[in-house]
Specification:
Low-confidence stretches: 1-5
Largest sheet: 9 strands, mixed
Strand order of the largest sheet: 1-4-3-5-6-10-11-2-12
Number of helices: 18
Organism: Candidatus Viridilinea mediisalina
Bound molecules: flavin-adenine dinucleotide, iron/sulfur cluster
Pfam families: FrhB_FdhB_C, FrhB_FdhB_N
Mean pLDDT: 93
Structural class: alpha+beta
Domain Coenzyme F420 hydrogenase/dehydrogenase beta subunit C-terminal: 163-308
Shape: globular
GO molecular function, one term: oxidoreductase activity, acting on CH or CH2 groups, with an iron-sulfur protein as acceptor
Protein name: Coenzyme F420 hydrogenase
Radius of gyration: 20 Å
Helix content: 25-40%
Number of strands: 14
Distance between the termini: 50 Å
Length: 416
Amino acid sequence: MTTTTVRPLHEIALLSQAERFKGRPKLCSDCGICGGELRPKMAQSCVFVNNKHEELELKLHGRNRRDGDELLFGISRAIHVIRMRPVNYEAQWSGVITTMGALLLEQGLVEGVICTHAAPGTRWAPLPVLARTPEEVRASAGNKPCISPNLEILDQVRASGLKRIAFIGTGCQVHALRALEDELGLERLYVIGLPCTDNTSYPDLLRFLKIASKSPDTVVHQEFMQDFRVWFRHENGTIEKVNFVDLDVSGLGGERAMFPAACMSCFDYQNGLTDLTVGYLGAPLPPEERWQWMFVRTERGEELFELLRPHLELGTYSEGGNRRPGIKAYIGMLRRPKVRPAAPIRKFVAWMQRTKGPKGLEFARSVIEQKLLRNLVFVRDLHGRLEGRIVPGYVYRALEYTAEVYEQEFERPLKR
Ligand SMILES: Cc1cc2nc3c(=O)[nH]c(=O)nc-3n(C[C@H](O)[C@H](O)[C@H](O)COP(=O)(O)OP(=O)(O)OC[C@H]3O[C@@H](n4cnc5c(N)ncnc54)[C@H](O)[C@@H]3O)c2cc1C
Ligand code: SF4
Ligand code: SF4
């Protein structure tokens, strides 16, 4: 039987940002800690009160990130390009995450898996659950691309006395979970991560779909693809592709109105404190082939990879282009108000991005650096007093090559 959170559905999923964050600190992604019994632990676990990423990383790996890709992707023992054999076409990509959770239960390695279903009557509103059977984990397939209080389910884990669990979630959730791990009384914890950026509340997701898609009500799957387009799959199987540059962000009130302040202050796109993270950002195209990329971060992550290995097909990386000139130009754009260019210019930009833009791993580096820069500027503009506590040191190291341009544009050093 699936046990769901005791908080009423409309509270966990359907509320606007304003209602959802009432009474919370200024920066909150509703990770689930403050909705339940663990609320008194907020100060010691919240990534937006005190970002302990580097301290927790040291505990997990015995070291911090080295210069190079680790500054963007996090520490890992291995990185693989993979897909399920056969691909699960009902999943977000190929079904790696749900298969892993289901296998852990099938083989008796865990007693429960914390994952995210869709709230009844909705396609996208996230409902965290404690899955006790492989079928219940499989039923969590597909993104519900909204903030979700998954850690609230720890109350149910404690109440039911489970000692071996797996957790599937995003970086802000994993930070809090790692910070509290030693106090949870668990014998075994597998931390399986999704990369995450620009998450939003459910009402704002619906607003986005209305503006971005020609038929918002029939969208059954959406992803921001590596070809600089959002792909919407509709109920009848057709795919609608919208260039990033054509999205009317100002029609949504701009990024700062669309995304919660917490997601604009988030610096862990690749979910660096997991045992294993599975995304798509650096995986090769075309998307129809459903290749994913996986970071095996810890010994427990290696165990997960071996568990899954017989069901996987391994692929190879690709990379191309040079992100650095574009990233330096992006810094200038961050200062200026966002105005959507005229249609012919957008068409040209979209063509340039697809044909000349960074590809494969270089595309992933480019996207992550853009988010680090944008979010650093956001924190400095609106939450400057918090910078010392919420921006981890690796951010400044990762962006060091842009320091001169940053200083020219913002008339202050990149470093704190
Ligand atoms: C909000 C969000 C943003 C993401 N952004 C990126 C990104 O920018 N770049 C990137 O490379 N990858 C991103 N991902 C991950 C990616 O889209 C796929 O989910 C991942 O590659 C796994 O695919 P799969 O087929 O193995 O997953 P599936 O087997 O389909 O399983 C999906 C899993 O996601 C979990 N899930 C669904 N919604 C949520 C939610 N709201 N919060 C927490 N967990 C949830 C479910 O529990 C389920 O187990 C994001 C995922 C989410 C949920
Ligand atoms: S992000 Fe989590 S820990 Fe932080 S304030 Fe929000 S619910 Fe609490
Ligand atoms: S963008 Fe960051 S803060 Fe927002 S839900 Fe994702 S991991 Fe959490």
